[in-house]
């Protein structure tokens, strides 16, 4: 799995090429739950997630899926905070989903939005995800961070801390230099870094900001000078921003709203449009 979570290892077909790099779309499954928690039965939501994953895998242009799990203990959410979704994304459900994805040659990522990532990871480690994303702001203690990394690698998963470029009112973002000092001792064990690259009031509920802003460019540029692993960008990936995101040097693009909530009943069609936008001549 480490080989997959490193720059440009997929076949460099025209559909994946952008700015001289191989770019992998990583659909955010949480978007399928927007506005549905506490309204639609859990079993129906789980079935919808399963069907959409099967549909996109059969399309052949998506290999990895991103599953954000919102825990009520995370203090970095904006206002209004998003709904907790563990009732849908249970360990048992995700274990089955991940196994189905692996059988079709794909990968499932977990993104744990919690201030207790080690404890939450122990609840979900049976899922055997390919990659585990966790909030860097939740692992300020390097000893705790070390324990988390050892536990993730011990399960055969790749660890990917999430760096907040904008943060929230309750937990302002740190500078690139400050976050780099936190991850630097562990860089050799981190094939993938994830950047929350758009200001979000409440994650997938409300969006504000811009992918191509000077703040995002400068932040990513700081890391590109010091880090040679893969970069994943999350937040603000749309048809009119995907080229900007790729130009920043992204290897993975987490995008959910544009795929699942863009007014089309065919997410695979939107995947095609996103990939076509990447290679279109301007």
UniProtKB/TrEMBL annotation:
InterPro entries: Aldolase_TIM, RibuloseP-bd_barrel. It comes from the Bacteria. Gene3D superfamilies: Aldolase class I. This is Ribulose-phosphate 3-epimerase.
